[in-house]
Amino acid sequence: MDPALTQEQDEIARALRDALSKQAGMEEVRAAAATPVGYDAELWRRLAEQLGLAGLALPERHGGTGLGPVELALACEEAGRVLLPSPLLASSVLAATAIAGCADAAQRDDLLPALASGARTAALALPGTPALALGLVPDANPQPFLGDVPSGGGRAGGIQAKPADDGYWTLYGEAVHVLDGARADLLVLAAHAGGFPRGRTVLFVMDAAGAGGGAAATGSGASGAGGGAPGLRRERSAGIDSTRSVARVELRDVLARPLGDPARDAGPVLASVGRLAAVAVAAEAVGAAAQALARTVEYVQARQQFGRAVGSFQAVKHRLADVYVAVETARSAMLYAAWSAVTAPEDPVPALLALAHALTAQRTAAAEAIQLHGGIAITWEHDAHLYFKRAAADELLFGPPHLLRARAAELSGVLAATGTTRTGGATTR
After folding, report:
1. What are the start and end residues of every segment in region (Disordered) (predicted)?
2. What is the DSSP string of 19-56?
């Protein structure tokens, strides 16, 4: 591995940082997060058109820029630095990767160009939290017929699917932690099909603004809580982190088309989505942690106490030095995981460990920021709390770190899988 970034990669990060520094300050971020759509749609359009952000990791034949996980990680790091509310994670990483991995050629040609251009957005609806549904953390109650990745429906709740007419399926159920699910134009839904004997996960796609699963619908998907399609209800949840929109999606006999072959289990595709999502979220966490640290260092240099800067006290220096080490090592782990996604795409362990380390660094940096800003009587309106809330929300959605490490240990063979015991060298459930 060559740890040095290429000139092109440096320019990608620099261009995005310059654009966001001018157009995504904290006031703009707060205002965008408070809008019904949850982000600045005009800014997203400009970033997609001028920098190719929406299709950064999608192939050129589908309208993307054809770059890879390293470039995507660098972009996510810059987005995380300013806590950018955008469809980058939900649409460009989660949903687009699921479509690319599961859809047939005609569906990919139909769906991906609009996502790559930023003209449309998509959301991936999963059972439970993304961490559990994407196999990032161990399942405490594994269901053998569902494989390594938990499925929707069944005893776990989620969404159930059964065949209808003309290639459509009927979906019934709900997903409660859908990133950008309230306003996305397209919904990619992970549902349980086949009953207990032939249980499997199947991915479906539907136009959230109209009926059924047509991919070429013209609706914006930004209608109210009803969602537009008959039987579909979408409602934005009041989450901890206002900069990351999360929604509840309810389906009552909604028609949708399967992505690809409905007889094929989509569990492996969701596992690959989880690996890329882990890298992307780790990169966002590293960017947020680095910015929280930078703002804290700036503050303690300006804040005076006993006739000298707060940052000149040895105890403060030691605390900030510890945060700096955590952030830099997390960034190294994140870049290694992004590089491993190219060289060893089937190995999820680097991504899991990078995410665990990044979430820990983000929480540490955000907590120290609040502590070391304490002399100004911190309030919820201060920007430091935005970083603290992002750290807390990320651990709820994609962690926590100790379970990410436990999953990595399971996959590496260091520990027995959850719900199993080792007997005489053999592993039994």
Report:
1. 214-239
2. HHHHH--HHHHHHHHTSTTSS-HHHHHHHHHHH--TTT
Same domain, 300 and 367: yes
Specify whether 307 is located in the same domain as 322. Answer: yes
**pLDDT band with cut points at 50, 70 and 90 for residue 132:** very high
Cα 75–Cα 95–Cα 335 angle in degrees, nearest 5: 30
For the stretch 384-393, pLDDT in tens is: 999 999 999 9
Q: What is the pTM of this model?
A: 0.90
CATH number of the domain where residue 11 is located: 1.10.540.10
User: Token pair of 86, please?
Assistant: 């955008």
Secondary structure class of 67 (helix, strand, coil): coil
Domain count within the chain = 3
Q: How far apart are CA 196 and CA 336, in angstroms?
A: 40
Among candidate residues 152, 215, 227, 144, the one with its CA nearest the CA of residue 189? 152
Cα distances (Å, whole numbers) of residue 75 to 49, 126, 208: 15, 25, 28
Least confident of 86-95, 221-230, 386-395, 402-411: 221-230
As a whole number of angstroms, the distance between CA 120 and CA 186 comes to 8
Residues spanned by the domain of 368: 268-412
